[in-house]
TrEMBL record:
Stated name of the protein: D-alanine--D-alanine ligase
Reactions catalysed, as given in the entry: 2 D-alanine + ATP = D-alanyl-D-alanine + ADP + phosphate + H(+)
Pathway membership, UniProt: Cell wall biogenesis; peptidoglycan biosynthesis
Family: Belongs to the D-alanine--D-alanine ligase family.
Cofactor annotation: Mn(2+); Mg(2+)
PANTHER family for this protein: D-ALANINE--D-ALANINE LIGASE (PTHR23132), D-ALANINE--D-ALANINE LIGASE B (PTHR23132:SF23)
Binding site for Mg(2+) 2: 291, 293
Binding site for Mg(2+) 1: 277, 291
Keyword Repeat: no
Length: 328
């Protein structure tokens, strides 16, 4: 029996461009013999299904259904492919929970918490062999003292919007005198900002997913860029960064990374596929947690499709297993 799946794309942040590309990859690789897929665009203007042969049809948000030529279509589940708000921060998850409609991502609470980098690090702290950079979280409408922070934290710093994604509004600050401008830039994207000590080392990312009832660690990717850090341009402009999958690391390092990544997935109560970014210091030494993405990119050049290919699994089969695990 075919399942009727809504593939939800778009969003209300600057990441909607990436969401559209992710949804295109997912749509191309969802098995047409197993799923009837309706791609739905969510934007500030509304939620719409746009069939190729007619005008766009608005979603009935009372029960998340479509009416096409007099026929009401209800969904067995939702594949959420929206990066940023409202697909990655728990808002949509809460809505679908109330409708008792299953979806492919982490639940509402985990999505909301992991969207906040500071809160995520507070929960992840204490996991065996996981290190976290020292940081200070500041709020736009509350008092903060940058002079005190400059004394507390060692430069250089990373300054990040606390709830942002795709490195939008993020800066690396090499000189303390530039901290004020970096904070102002980050506050344009969010009302909370995280200032953390820069950790020097090799940068990696790894996908973690539950498939066939078992937590699976995908092959690790190493990310190298000539830029100061892996920013929006480096992430989405071909040739700016070098990505090696599987990463050239020792077997014992790979096993340690897998143990830590699984522990993060469990402690944050994740479901579906997530991606954990981290740094290994010096000679594959300490594991420093950077952040977790609960709706990782699925564009043709994104990390998860790369890692799925590296483990010898077709994207078609990967998405089928993911839907069966999360939607049923």
């Amino acid at each position: 029996m075919k399942k009727t799946i809504a593939l939800l794309t778009g969003g209300t942040t600057g990441e909607w461009v990436i969401s559209v590309k992710s949804a295109a990859t997912i749509a191309q690789n969802l098995d047409a013999d197993k799923f009837d897929v309706y791609k739905i665009m969510l934007s500030q203007q509304g939620w719409f299904y746009e069939p190729a042969d007619s005008v766009k049809i608005e979603v009935d948000r009372n029960d998340f259904s479509l009416t096409i030529k007099g026929r009401k279509i209800k969904f067995d589940g939702v594949y959420i492919a929206i990066h940023g708000s409202p697909g990655e921060d728990g808002k949509l998850q809460g809505y679908f929970d109330m409708l008792q409609l299953p979806y492919t991502t982490c639940d509402a609470l985990t999505s909301a918490i992991t969207m906040n980098k500071g809160y995520t690090k507070a929960i992840a702290a204490g996991i065996d062999q996981l290190s976290i950079a020292r940081s200070v979280q500041i709020f736009k409408d509350a008092h903060y003292d940058l002079g005190h922070i400059k004394n507390e934290l060692n430069s250089p710093y990373f300054v990040k919007p606390n709830n942002g994604g795709s490195s939008i509004g993020m800066s690396k600050v090499n000189h303390v005198n530039d901290l004020d401008a970096a904070v102002a830039k980050a506050f344009k994207e969010d009302t909370q900002v995280l200032i953390e000590e820069f950790i020097s080392g090799r940068e990696f990312t790894v996908g973690v997913v539950k498939l066939d009832g078992k937590i699976t660690i995908l092959p690790v990717t190493e990310v190298e860029t000539a830029k100061e850090f892996f920013d929006f341009e480096a992430k989405y402009t071909p040739g700016v960064a070098t990505e090696t999958t599987p990463a050239l690391i020792r077997p014992e390092t790979r096993d340690r990374v897998a143990r830590i990544a699984e522990a993060v997935y469990v402690k944050l109560n994740c479901r579906g596929v997530v991606r954990i970014d981290f740094i290994l210091k010096e000679d594959e030494g300490e594991f420093y947690f950077i952040e977790i993405n609960t709706v990782p990119g699925q564009t043709a050049t994104s990390f998860i499709p790369q890692q799925v290919a590296a483990m010898g699994l077709k994207l078609n089969d990967f998405y089928t297993k993911l839907i069966r695990e999360t939607i049923g």
